[in-house]
Amino acid sequence: MTRRRIRALFLDVDGVLTDGRIYLDGTGRELKVFNTKDGHGMRKAAAAGIAVCWISGRSSPATARRAKELGVPHCLQGVRDKGVVIARLARRLGVSRAEIAAMGDDEPDIPLFDAAGLSACPADAAPGARRAASLVTRAPGGGGAVREFIEIILKRNGQAGVVTRRPA
Ligand SMILES: [Mg+2]
């Protein structure tokens, strides 16, 4: 049996692309810290023909800004039911379950895992997410977990040689 190549990567944002902390100032402005190694990983994924999609339950201009900077083609925020959204997006992208990889760090991400052929969570994910995911990365959220997962996907896809020199 030939394994289908992963063609879409669904990522939760808080706790996956960040360490899960949200910095708030008194005026309601929000700061998040993103990791450039994850950013470069997403560029590699895109260069390998993988559609990168961010799905966040929250809504933050910082997330939109980083997604734009990286050229992430699908950045969905304020998502109440991630299962519904992923199904809709998968149909639009024309990808089957076996072609989807997903990463999340908490219970609202379990529908994301269910919709994916390969799922992962960062080392410091909530226990329910760790139990539900196919694999747990060594790196924590915001600490390179996304990069680690992307390298695993590229290797599994037979695309480990994909290198891109554009900075993240
Ligand atoms: Mg999260």
Distance between the termini: 36 Å
- The number of helical segments is 6
Give the rounded overall mean pLDDT.
94
What low-confidence regions span 5 or more consecutive residues with pLDDT below 50? none
Query: CATH H level: which superfamily?
Result: HAD superfamily/HAD-like
Explain what this protein looks like in three dimensions.
With 168 residues, the chain is of the alpha/beta class. The protein has one domain: HAD superfamily/HAD-like (Rossmann fold, 3-Layer(aba) Sandwich), CATH 3.40.50. Helix content is 34%, strand content 15%. It contains six helices and eight strands; from the N terminus they run βββαβαβαβαβαβα. The strands form two sheets. A six-stranded parallel beta sheet has the order 5-4-1-6-7-8, with helices on both faces. It has a two-stranded antiparallel ribbon with strand order 2-3. Helix 5 links the parallel strand 7 and strand 8. Helix 1 runs parallel beside helix 6. It is globular. The mean pLDDT is 94. Magnesium ion binds next to loops.
Précis, in short:
The protein has six helices and eight strands; from the N terminus they run βββαβαβαβαβαβα. It is of the alpha/beta class.
Question: In terms of topology, how is this protein built?
Answer:
Blueprint: E1 8-11, E2 23-24, E3 30-31, H1 36-47, E4 51-55, H2 61-70, E5 74-76, H3 82-93, E6 100-103, H4 110-114, E7 118-121, H5 127-132, E8 135-136, H6 145-156
Parallel strand pairs: 1-4, 1-6, 4-5, 6-7, 7-8
Antiparallel strand pairs: 2-3
Helix pairs in contact: 1-6
The protein binds magnesium ion.
The site of magnesium ion has 6 residues, from loops.
